[in-house]
Amino acid sequence: MLPPLNLKALQDAVSGTACAFRSRTRLQPADGPGGKIFPPTHLGGEYAVEQRRRTGADGNSEEVTCVLIDSVQSSANRLEEALKIQVEARKLSLPLVRVDFDDDRLTDPIGSLSTLDVPHRLADAILRDSLIDEDGKAVPFRKSSWGSRLNVASLGNATPLLEISPTSLLFGLWDSTGPKGGLGAKFQRAIVSEIVAIGAAIGVRTSSRIDPLQIRSGIPIKKGDDSEYEVTAKESKGTVQASEINHGNIPPTIDAGGITCDYCEHSLTLSLPALRRLRFPINGEWSTEADNAGRTLLASIGLMASALACESGFDLRSRCLLWPEVPFELELLDRPGETPKRFTLTGDQGIAIYNEAVDHLRSVGLPYHTEPVKLRPKESLMKLLIASQEKAASESAAEGD
Length: 401
Fold this sequence. Notes:
Distance between the termini: 63 Å
Mean pLDDT: 92
Protein name: CRISPR-associated protein
Oligomer: single chain
Radius of gyration: 26 Å
Structural class: alpha+beta
Number of domains: 2
Number of strands: 21
Shape: flat
Number of helices: 9
Low-confidence stretches: none
InterPro entries: CRISPR-assoc_prot_Csb1/Cas7u
Organism: Crateriforma conspicua
Largest sheet: 9 strands, antiparallel
Order of helices and strands: HEEEHEEHEEHHEEEEEEEEEHHEEEEHEH
């Protein structure tokens, strides 16, 4: 039976010379092995198909057809979503910067968006175009005491971001639209995760519609406003068929769509060298103790998020629900040539390790702000959002007509 990961093992791995924590988990469609799933489509409606090498059952290398099921970027979003669920359930306290869109002018309410939601994390344009109340004044976020931290953050000074957005350091950030342009703060992604279908075969997708009224084609129809229409005596300019108003049969069609595969594989790697590049000075002074505490805290977030995401299953999109064959397990790649050490980790255990890491972080003097930094959108952003929602509503109405 494998031992569970604990804070001491994590601290030893981070402070030592270990290369990475990794995990490889086999997944199957929720309806069982051989079930059909639908990967994401890319430009032109294509699946991301590629040939990959693997060791076959006979021990020899072989080439197999694989399909990308969940990309690195999409998988990072799912890890952040797993953290967000725990934060909203009040089972986890995590530093966040949050924008509250509480405005009656919005026809489609948005609620709040935080650094766990926006694509560029702390450097996102949504935060840039928001205000914070500071010293009795409304200040643009990037000019506030919180937002201006991005201007001084670097690999050698990651403390300002650790305090308010540790996930930006873990999942990656590039402040390319800030005052320094392309020279803005840049932090590589330390955790990489993806899901790939192994031994895949492309299938077909059928579609059809049977009209219970059996409305026949060839009847001229003139469309009016608000889904109104009338049947005309003969075809003329502007008349349409019944299918244009969602009546009548649609003959069965067959197109390429969906895949079956031997299995899917979720792979995850947490790079410890990437974390060791980060330094966490306190009042301008570096120490090994503070650096290791900051790095361990980030590692605990990444592994906690991974365990939580695995336990919740992988409901990736319509007709793409996957389930792990085994519980979440980790391997520690420590000394070259040695067999990797193996650990189990549940979501609850991950949260417990994270809380211990936070306590240790604070005990060495590093700041950690777990109360949300609250922003509100600038009026210019609100007007842009309102105009976009109005345009979407008018386009939807036009499509309905």
